[in-house]
Amino acid sequence: MRHMVLIRLDPTTIPEGGPDADMVSEITALLEEMTKAGVLLDTNGLRPIEEATRLRQRPDGSAAVVDGPFTETKEIIGGYLLLQTRSTEEATEWSSRFLRLHDPSWDVELELRQLDHQD
Questions:
Q1: With contact defined as beta carbons under 8 Å apart, do 19 and 103 qualify?
Q2: How many structural domains does the chain have?
Q3: What's this model's pTM, rounded to 2 decimal places?
Q4: Each residue's pLDDT tens digit, 100-112
Q5: Could you tell me the CATH number of the domain that includes residue 96?
């Protein structure tokens, strides 16, 4: 089974300069463990929301393209993990381990979703 894990966060809770060295080291070690276990297919952080572009189609068929920054944004997708596991429970366990490595001051949430088509 493949799962996409979306890392949602409130950017105002991230310390200036990003995560500290210990947190980076712990996350790196977990990602290496996941890779060796054959679970982690891909992961990455996303560029800042200020650099984002939103495309929207409205019900009347009109389209809009809007460049950031998006001042109303209180929660952003900061990155993702693409996992391949034997079950949703296994994907949940790996994701939980990843989440626990974030400093408690961060307002972070993981959204775990199984891919619709499994290649």
A1: yes
A2: 1
A3: 0.86
A4: 999 888 999 999 9
A5: 3.30.70.1060
